[in-house]
Amino acid sequence: MVVLGAGSWGAALAHQARLSGKSEVRLLARSAADCESLAMGRIRQLPQIAPIEPLDADTNPAILAQADVILLAAPLSAHPHASEQITGYARDDVPIIFCSKGLVPDTDRGGLFLPEYAQTVFAGRPVAMLTGPSFADEVLANLPTALLVASPDQAVCGVIADIFDDSHLRIYQGEDMLGAAIGGAAKNVVAIAAGIVSGLGFGDNARAALVTRGLAEIGRLAKEASAQQKTISGLAGLGDLILSCASIHSRNMAYGFDIGAGRQPDGRLSEGRHAVAHLVARARYHTIEMPIAEAVDSIVNHGASLADTIKQVLARKASTE
């Protein structure tokens, strides 16, 4: 197995797969510095955590030619280059497992979720989504974590479940790749909003209400995109949403918290910051309302007044539930 992407999440997945011992594990990294750190059991993005057992990493994409499974854990911004590496080196029958969260820009629909993107770059190849409530530092610390692997090809799901058998990851299997991708991408945006509410000091009641209404927005989008509602109610939707909106341990919530508290946020690791414009555009394509996502987009990408935006959201007429 090759994990393409040697950041904290790629390293966490490689660490658990190596613990299971079901597959030889290598990482394809972007820099020699990442390889050197991993060889010492260090994660450059998480310098505060205890060292793990060394991981085998390389910068040569030719290692993809020997892969029997590829976990694509690179950031979305790196997916075009990663896709070229996969199509250039990997066999056509090797399953590609998407492990990132977000949307890819699209001129027709505003944004493509990862299974839709896969149809454009990996047509005919077996693909799946691996997602769910998971902080990389906890996975690296061997704390129990449950994830969903989703694919219309259930044989691929079985392969992934087997790879992580006997690890600290509990892998549930499903067929709804699109729903899994929608839940993972949209929850990041709701987490920014939850952070803003918390940073403003609005309290736990307001945050709970926002998270609940955010889940309703995600459900509406999933329905219009022909995803399954049960997926949004599971690990990839509700589970990931709960985790991301629980505390500033979540990068997206921390980003929103800084905005609400009047501080300049560090958005380098906030997936929701990069996804929100595409998410709003996709909602407009489906002609559905996502007021929370629209509010976050107005604040993050258009410099809207925080006070005015909050006032507009609160002025919306309450509907039935």
Q: Could you walk me through the main structural features you see in this protein, from its secondary elements to its overall organization?
A:
With 321 residues, the chain is of the alpha/beta class. The protein is built from 14 helices and ten strands. The protein has two domains: 2-175, NAD(P)-binding Rossmann-like Domain (Rossmann fold, 3-Layer(aba) Sandwich); 179-314, N-(1-d-carboxylethyl)-l-norvaline Dehydrogenase, domain 2 (Orthogonal Bundle), CATH 1.10.1040. An eight-stranded mixed β-sheet has the order 3-2-1-4-5-8-9-10, with helices on both faces. Strands 6-7 form a two-stranded antiparallel sheet. Strand 4, helix 3 (79-89) and strand 5 (96-98) form a beta-alpha-beta unit. The relative contact order is 0.11.
Gross morphology is: globular
Instruction: Supply the CATH architecture of the largest domain.
Output: 3-Layer(aba) Sandwich
Overall pLDDT confidence: 95
> Using DSSP, what is the number of strands?
10
H/I helix tally: 14
Radius of gyration: 19 Å
- The name of the CATH topology of the largest domain is Rossmann fold
* Strand adjacency order, main sheet: 3-2-1-4-5-8-9-10
* CATH class designation of the largest domain: Alpha Beta
Oligomer: single chain
Helix content: 40-55%
Proportion of beta-strand residues: 5-15%
Question: Termini distance?
Answer: 46 Å
Supply the CATH superfamily name of the largest domain: NAD(P)-binding Rossmann-like Domain
* Helix/strand class: alpha/beta
Number of domains: 2
Query: Tell me about the biggest sheet?
Result: 8 strands, mixed
Query: Low-confidence parts lasting 5 or more residues at pLDDT below 50?
Result: none
Q: Give the topology string: H per helix, E per strand.
A: EHEHEEHEEEHEHEHEHHHHHHHH
